[in-house]
Amino acid sequence: MRNGYVTGPILGALWLVVIASTLAVTMSFATGALFRPQVLFSLIWGALIGFSYVRFPVQNGLIRLALSAAGALACLTEVGPVLIGPEVTLTSRLITLVAFAAILHLSLQAILFDVPYATLTRHEFEAAVIRFCTGFGYIFFTAIVVIPFYVMVMTSLKSQQELLQNPLDFSIELSRGWDLFRSYTELFSDFNFGGYLWTSFYISVLTVFITLLFSVPGAYAVARFRFRGQKAFSRSILLIYMVPMIVLALPIYIAFSMTGLRNSILGIVMIYPVTTVPVALYMLQGYFRGLPTEVEEAGLMDGLSRLSVIWKITLPLSLPAMASVSLYVFMIAWNEFLLAFMLLDDPSKFTLTRGVSMLNSSEIPRQHLMAGAVIATVPIMALFLGLERFMTKGLTAGSVKG
Amino acid sequence: MSTAHPPSGSGALAKREARLAWALLAPTMISISLVVVLPLLAIIWISFKPFTLTDLRPPAPIVRESLRGEGDNLRLEYRVRNSSQELAITGVTLSDTLPLGLTLKENLPDHCYLTNRNLFCDFGDMNGGDREKLRLPVLATSDESALEELAEGSKPVMTGAGPSVLTSFEFSSENFTRLFDSDEFWSVLWITLFYTVFGTLGALVMGLFAALLLNKSFRGQGFIRGLYLFPYVAPVIAVAFTWVTLFDPFSGSANALLLQMGLSQSPINFFGERPLALIMVTVFEIWRYFPLSFLFILARMQSIDTSMYEAADMDGASPFQKFWLLSIPQLLGILSVLFLLRFIWTFNKFDDIFLLTGGNAGTRTLTVNVYEQAFAISNIGAGAAVAVVILLCLLLFSFVFFRFISREEGL
């Protein structure tokens, strides 16, 4: 096993299967035409090319490149790694071939870097395997993350007819111009999505403020003061994490039905913060513990009361943590679905998630549903990408909550 | 000579501190006990009651008033019925004002009185499902259709109340016996276990793999890390519906792709076939939550002391040896904490399955069952019983969790 002439062809063969499948799937999703990876031929071609990469050292780069190109050209026939359908346009063919040769050459060169023809040391062998797995990992994770979001966006830009004709064809006809966004304009004009956006936004912002109002003093008390029941309290916070929402939603539904709070924004604003306060408390108390007590003690010595110490010293110092917590709470409130679904029936009071769930019916075309999903996703994604640093910190600090 | 003693008990300062602490905690405590503790008690209470969705409103008399007939035959009718089919209502009365222009032709029945234009009737007690009709022949002195509107426009005021199932002190364990007797319950339990165990393990393994990929600095590392967090950050409703669209048996791209690649001959109903649907929702769970474990594991990896790896390099350890003998033992703590937490959270998961399959095709977990029982079959008591079962399981899990966490510092 640990000989270059074995390792090279095996890794090459497996890698070519990965590349061929990736390319075929990518091209299928881009054009909707027939691209089919051929596992058997991929294995054969891959073994051949892999062998050549260990046989000929880097100086003979031309031979390597030529073989990769030959593998790519084979795709034009029926015995290539990728079978290309007859209806595929010349441009797509050309793109496939060039991409295939280039990616194959560069990636295989990286994977089989410094792998000698003869016996490999354990280090060399494992390093090559790890490089192979790394390459596979990047392709795999990127594919599984990107494909659903790609499908979501592209479906929202299609018409019902196009979707049924070829569900794979995601190419966009730019000639349609603004008509591409018809689903979106219809959602905003006929389904009141502008209103839902606004409702979701202000409910989320209110939730953030109320959560901070409750959790900052609480977290400070848990982090700084010694009192009886402190440990029990911080444990019970964690315990509250573990109560499933549906169990709480049932009695809340009953109570709200009886008091008439169901179907009111007030009810939602009352209930959301309670689901986020434990998370925020947990995150903030961890941060407060990490702040040096000396600064606060200096403030106390100078005659500030505890409350003004919190207001004038602790809070300004913990602004980054507050940002993380706010973002995280905003995300929870924005994405919340279950309570909105159970407690809101009146379309004029829907939050965005509730509005999107309304679109999931057989009478409403799929692209409207996907456009709704995009509208719900884009704001939170923009916020996330813009403030990724805070967000990841917030997630690691407190995302015990799922 | 008296010896000095250290002060015992808590001093004034400590007491003041404790008081302030409780004052700061009070708002949180009150709100949480209102919205978490109280509902939990309520659900245990309800689980012992035969409580259905229709019992949400206590039984009450319902009345319909109408002016019928014309000329000599003109009559004012009140139809009163009990809203509940089972429960009796006591002290049912009706009061209404006769519109101007209508005069009664006959004497009122015994249980009714008329003072000025105010009509008052006492129906006494009404059993479940009872209906009563009050027919009063009247004489119209002005336009009949205007009078009809006037009569039907003024709503009669009803009194009378029945016992609410919710507040009575009658309990039965019927919900639980029916729950445990049904075969469905045990299959639900197995499905929950499958979903939870494989969903948790899968997300952990994938997270570990992704963390290994990103545990080195290169250009674009931040971007890829952000990208891999997408499934977790996006609203569940958006990604769940995207998956449903993607795997649709008729117009889904996944099926089209499989057909085109020659991997399947006929379209597969991913979320509609029995074993496949459960696997698909588990895969969705893994897909959606691997970012979370990935983030935690990556954070832990980056805090491992590099000198250890340097020492291993000096000793000639190979990459795999370094992974198995150094990284894994270092990560074991966070991995087990993550496992326990994710296990509990996957066990609690409701939205994902509800949106993907609605609990059909063999994907009904305990949490989905709560919803099914309470709202689809509209038997809230049965749903509450399932919820109590969930709570008991969670009590067990959290016991394990805290036993374990006390050893595992950090969280």
Give the topology, please.
The complex is a heterodimer of chains A (402) and B (411).
Chain A: H1 4-31, E1 35-37, H2 39-55, H3 61-73, E2 82-84, H4 90-111, H5 122-156, H6 160-165, H7 182-190, H8 193-224, H9 230-241, H10 245-259, H11 265-290, H12 293-301, H13 306-317, H14 319-335, H15 338-343, H16 352-358, H17 366-386, H18 388-398
Antiparallel strand pairs in A: 1-2
Chain B: H1 12-47, E1 61-68, E2 75-82, E3 89-97, E4 102-104, E5 112-115, E6 118-126, E7 131-140, H2 144-153, E8 157-161, H3 174-181, H4 183-214, H5 221-228, H6 230-233, H7 236-246, H8 253-261, H9 274-302, H10 306-314, H11 319-348, H12 351-356, H13 366-376, H14 380-405
Helix pairs in contact in B: 1-14, 3-14, 4-9, 4-11, 9-11, 11-14, 13-14
Task: Write a compact overview of the structure shown.
The complex is a heterodimer of chains A (402) and B (411). With 402 residues, chain A is mostly helical.
Describe this structure in words.
- The complex is a heterodimer of chains A (402) and B (411).
- In chain A, helix 1 (4-31) packs parallel to helix 5 (122-156), helix 5 (122-156) crosses helix 17 and helix 16 (352-358) packs antiparallel against helix 17 (366-386).
- A two-stranded antiparallel ribbon of chain A has the order 1-2.
- With 402 residues, chain A is mainly alpha-helical.
- Chain A folds into two domains: 4-165, no CATH class; 184-398, Orthogonal Bundle (MetI-like fold), CATH 1.10.3720.
- Chain A has 18 helices and two strands.
- The two termini of chain A are 44 Å apart.
- Chain B starts with 11 loop residues before the first helix and ends in a 6-residue tail after the last helix.
- In chain B, a hairpin with a 6-residue loop joins strand 1 (61-68) and strand 2.
- In chain B, helix 9 (274-302) packs across helix 11.
- In chain B, the strands form two sheets. A four-stranded antiparallel sheet of chain B has the order 1-2-7-4. Chain B has a four-stranded antiparallel sheet with strand order 5-6-3-8, with no helix packed on it.
- Chain B folds into two domains: 59-161, Immunoglobulin-like, CATH 2.60.40.290; 174-405, Orthogonal Bundle (MetI-like fold).
- The longest helix of chain B has 36 residues, at 12-47.
- Chain B has 411 residues and is of the alpha+beta class.
- Chain B contains 14 helices and eight strands.
- Chains A and B meet through helix 1, strand 1, helix 5, helix 8 and helix 9 of A and helix 1, helix 4, helix 5, helix 6 and helix 7 of B.
- Chain A: Belongs to the binding-protein-dependent transport system permease family.
- Chain A: The chain crosses the membrane at residues 12-33, 39-58, 65-84, 96-117, 129-151, 201-225, 237-259, 265-288, 309-334, 368-387.
- Chain A: Pfam families: BPD_transp_1.
- Chain A: It comes from Parasedimentitalea maritima.
- Chain A: Residues 197-387 form the ABC transmembrane type-1 domain.
